[in-house]
Structure formats: structure tokens, C-alpha cells
Amino acid sequence: MAENKEMTVDQVVKQIKNGDTVAIGGWGIIRKPLGLVRAIAKSDLKDLTIMGLAGMDLDMLIAAGKVKKAITGFVAFEGGEGRAVAYDNARKNGTIEYMEISEFMLIAGLKAAAERIPFYPTRSGLGTDILTMNPEIETFKAPYTGEKLVAMPALRADVCLIHANQASSEGYATIKGDKLWDHIMVRAADKVFVSAEQIIPRYELQKDMADVKILTPWVTGVVEVPNGARPGILFPDYIDPGNKTIKAYMDAALDPKAFKEYMDKW
Amino acid sequence: MAKATKVKTAKTEELATEYTIEEQMCCALAREFGPNDKIALSGVLNWTFVAEALAQKMNAPQIPCHHDYWRLGGNGCLAEGPRFPFQVGNPPEEYPSAQVTSEDIFAMVLGGKWNIMMQPLQVDKQGNANLALIGDPKKPDRYFVGSRGLPDNSTNSGRTYFTVATHLKRNFPEVVDFKSSAGWGPERLAGDIPYGAIEKVFTPLCIFDIDPKEKQMRLASVHKGVTVEQVLKNTGFKPILPKDGVPETCVPTKEELRLLREVIDGAAIRRLDHGTAEEKKAVFDQISDGTGFVQIYPNRR
Question: A109: helix, coil or strand?
Fold first, then answer.
């Protein structure tokens, strides 16, 4: 009988250690595992490095004081109305470390980590201040042609968190809309936790087999979190962003007392 | 990589006598696209979508528009028609679509099929653009959204167009605060960046292109009623001026105007991107006829 990977949100949080690098799936506020993120924000964890195409996830963790470093392709509340007030504030005041790269450079770094190679060759970033600001990213002369390319270093994570429409206790998960880069991200992490709107028996997944985008070998644990991507959006379950909740978050994010009230409420 | 197809309108075509700056801009951008183009991404402005729709009706019927449209579950969709707001007055059968995933998008970027219109905060003399932040990158006055896909587009994709909705000195500095995209700096001049070069910059006052010899921003044309002095006064660097003088931005033909006004953009959402917040709101109120957002964006409630 297959392993039962079902666990609780608290059990997921316990698997994360202080100082871990946590890769978070989704994009902006699209299909972000915000249920899990909220639990981390309320936990005692600290000094995390957060990696991803970031939005409310990173911003909320910064507001909660959990973040030492951010590795991002962008930080935006894309898909909803709002902006990353805590990240903006942290960058202005220099209170977090950061590695700001481009969307594809982040993906390239994940691909390298997923394939256990030290770097991924790309033209992305050439001629830009991304290379000036991140001197550890080297360029090289390509074999065969001599072209100048960027050697995007592998971005390995200790933990990866993603959100899915459905998952089975064995660790299969369906993503009905764009899988974004979650399928690459799960391969670049040592432990992978999938929150899903619903945990369903494996045989029910057969109906939507083409939507099963995450396979069990990558997955450490699955956890049922209904509305787990709100106030962001999850296709097709909820496609209207919770702009009022996002606004309430933005109003509260920079004030510790108001932020605690927000977190208690949501 | 598909070269920009410079589509000249036939001399016999009748030119319009009454037209607006937005209509000029739409025509100028639409004429950048031709039969060799595979896809165009219009970014987030209304007038660029109108321009792309005009290109589809005129010289590039084969290009699908990419719509940022999260609701379809993807990172957007492809449609054989203009953007959803155009459903005002347009038949729904023009909007079959395919989901476009992030992976599809980057495949098109990296494969050079993608021609993009982006809206950076700043563009400088070398054609570098900044989307990331304002101020010192190490301690910015304001963080915007990061560089996003600009470093990817400007080094990998087809042609890159920028549209800057406000033409002030701070938008066009000598050197941008952060180089999000690779313009004509030392790397491109040395031949290290063969793809994704900036083609043109559209502003409410003028169009800049890249001088073929100097590889710096050139004032290609000024819009109707705009003077060269006005542009220079509002530009932080000194653009190259064409020897024979700066022409007026292309004058729409009567056919282009008919398509714009009667077929593509009856509601005239092309006016929604420029001007002050109050001016834009006035235009929006006029277009929506008091019914608000719903009528213009019926699918976005």
C-alpha cells in the first residue's frame, strides 16, 4: 500500500527549520500557498530565505519578520490590486538581504538545481544591472561558438511549498490552470509540501489525469487547505482576487499591532 | 528573428486630415508589424492593444494577440482578435482563445518569436530601460516591481518596443537608475547580445528610435502639434536629431481611421492611457456612459 503523505498545516511548519531556504510556487498572487504561508508567519520560525516569483507570500513573511533574504524574479501583486508594501519598505530601509534577478534567471537557477548541475546557461541578464548588483553571477564564453553567456547559478531550496486544486494522499496533485513553474520548483527542493483545496482518493484523480502536474516522487507531504490561495486566485475555483482583504493587508502590513489583528482575523 | 517590416502605405491612399495624437500613435505602432511576425504582446496599455488590433486588420492578420488574462487559468491567452474591452461593439466569435502558460511565454521569448511592448519607468540615451526601482538600487526611494522579464526580453526575444505614458525629464534621464533591459551599451555594441534590441519608444509627445550609426536614441518624429523644442525641454538627455529635420509622426490614412473608429475601437479606449488621473477618469466616465467598469470590461466584473 502506498505511503500516506497527508499531514496537517502544523506538521508542515514543523518540518521547516530556522535559516531554511523556502521556495514558494505560484506567481504574484496567482495560486500562492497562502494558507501555509500564513501558518509560517504565525510560527516562531526566523531567518528564512524566500525564493520565487513573489507577491503577497513574500510580503506577508517580511511583515511578520521571518525573512532574512529574498531571491526574486519580481515582487508584485499581479492578478489583484495591491503592491508589496513590506518588501518596498524593507528595500528602502535595507532591512533584508536580497538577490533580485529576472523571471527567467530565477527559473534557470531552479532548472539547474533540479538537474543537479552547477549553473544554467542563458543570455538573460547580459548588459543589465542585474549582473552589476549580483557580482556572484558570472558570465562565460560558450564552448563551440565563443558567445558570451550568463552562468546562472543553481538555486537549491530546503523546502518547496505549492498550492494545487486537488491532491491524493499518495502525493499526486492536479493543477487545472497554468502550472507556472511549480513543476520545476518541486524538483529543486529537498522537501516538498503541497497544499490543496481538497484531498481526494487517487482513483478520482483518473478523471483529470491530464491535470495531474505534480507527481508523488517529488512530494514529501500533502495537506488539505480549502481556500488555500486566497485572497489570491486559483483557477477555476476562485478567479476573483480578494481585493478588499488585500487592501486590509496593505493597510496593516507596516504596523505590528494592526498586522497582528489582520493575521488573527484572516 | 523577424525584422521589423516597414509597411509603407500606398501613395494613392488618401491621408486623413483630422486625427488625434492617440490615433497617430496607434497607426505608427500598427505599421511596425507585418507578415513575418509571429506574435505580439501588447503589455498593459489600452492604446497598444488598439494598435495591435489595427495591425491585425491591416498588415499582419496572422498575429495572435496575447492577453494577460488570469481568469483563463493560464498566464494569459491567445486570441484572434483584440483585447477583451473591445467586446463593446465586437462580435464574440472573434475571441477564440488558447491558454498560454508561463512556459509557453518563455519558450516564445527564448525562441525569438515574441515582440513585446513594455512600459518602463525610465529610458535613457543608450536605450536602456528601468522597470525596477527609483533612486539608488542599494537603497531605493521606491521599489517598483523588479525587472521582471525585461532582462529576458531584451536579450532573447524578437523586437522590443517601449511605451512611456508620461514624457518628463525624469522618465528620460541620461542614465537610468537601474538597467533592467539591455539597450545599446558596451555588451550589445561588442556583439555579445544579438537579440531583443530596442526598436522604438512611444511617448505622448514623440517617437524615439535608435540612430543606426551612433546607436543612441534619436528623435524619429513628433506627434501632431508637438514641437521639437517641447520634446527637448522635457527630455533629460540630448537625443540625436535627424539631419533633414524631425518629421511629424505618420499621418493616418482614411482607411486606418475608419478601422480604428468604426471597427476596432468604437468606444475609443485608446484615449484612456494619457493625461492626468482626472482626465483619464473623465474619458472613462464618458466611454462607460455612467455604467462603470462593467460595460468596458464585461468579463472582469
Answer: helix
